[in-house]
């Protein structure tokens, strides 16, 4: 069975698993990010046996995605492969401590690119002297968009937090 399980089949199983930290189903946001990674960034690997994904392949894909889309996208795709790999090993656990799929290919990325999971802090800020002009422009925009931007600015909320509020 180990040689025939595809990345997609393991991912489909993994999606139904509870988050190990919260013991709740994976969030809609996490599933959206993983679905995008599977359909766009890992589509050519989805239907091949997972055991065929080598650490060198993952490192190469990570570098390619990092160059094309940035570190966040590359991290998410690599993280998805790692999560699926761990899940597949857990499901194939025979109790003898051996990893049926072998060690996760992420270990090579960890070795070759220490700190790869760290994302740079955002540095784009509205300077204090620009705030009145910015706020005036947002208020002039009016409507839902203007109100949305003003609430973001004045509360420090994230876009997703504000958009998911229940009124």
Question: What attributes characterize this protein structure?
Answer:
167 residues, mainly alpha, 8 helices, 56% helix, 0% strand, elongated
Task: Describe the 3D structure.
The structure is a single chain. Helix 1 (7-14) packs across helix 4 (71-91), helix 2 (28-41) packs across helix 4 and helix 3 runs antiparallel to helix 4 (71-91). This protein has helices at residues 7-14, 28-41, 55-69, 71-91, 106-112, 131-141, 143-155, 159-163. The model has no long low-confidence stretch (mean pLDDT 84). It is mainly α and 167 residues long. It starts with 6 loop residues before the first helix and ends with a helix. It is elongated and about 65 Å long. It has 8 helices and no strands. Helix content is 56%, strand content 0%.
Q: Could you outline the blueprint of secondary structure elements for this entry?
A:
Layout: H1 7-14, H2 28-41, H3 55-69, H4 71-91, H5 106-112, H6 131-141, H7 143-155, H8 159-163
Helix pairs in contact: 1-4, 2-4, 3-4, 3-5, 6-7
Give the amount of beta strand, in percent.
under 5%
Q: Termini separation (Å)?
A: 49 Å
- The beta-strand count equals 0
Overall shape: it is elongated
- Helix-strand sequence: HHHHHHHH
Mean pLDDT: 84
Radius of gyration: 21 Å
Q: What are the segments in which pLDDT stays under 50 over at least 5 consecutive residues?
A: none
The biggest beta sheet, please? none
Task: Give the helix level as a range of percent.
Answer: 55-70%
Number of helical segments with 4 or more residues = 8
Structural class computed from helices and strand pairing: mainly alpha
């Amino acid at each position: 069975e180990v040689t025939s399980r595809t990345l997609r089949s393991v991912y489909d199983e993994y999606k139904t698993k509870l988050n190990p930290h919260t013991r709740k189903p994976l969030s809609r946001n996490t599933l959206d990010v993983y679905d995008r990674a599977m359909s766009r960034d890992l589509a050519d690997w989805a239907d091949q046996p997972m055991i065929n994904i080598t650490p060198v392949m993952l490192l190469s894909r990570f570098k390619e995605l990092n160059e094309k889309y940035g570190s966040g996208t590359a991290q998410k795709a690599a993280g998805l492969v790692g999560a699926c790999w761990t899940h597949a090993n857990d499901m194939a656990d025979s109790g003898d401590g051996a990893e049926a799929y072998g060690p996760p290919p992420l270990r090579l990325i960890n070795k070759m690119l220490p700190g790869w999971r760290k994302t740079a802090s955002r540095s784009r800020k509205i300077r204090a002297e620009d705030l009145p002009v910015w706020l005036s422009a947002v208020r002039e925009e009016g409507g839902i968009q203007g109100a949305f931007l003003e609430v973001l600015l004045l509360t420090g909320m994230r876009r997703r937090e504000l958009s998911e509020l229940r009124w």
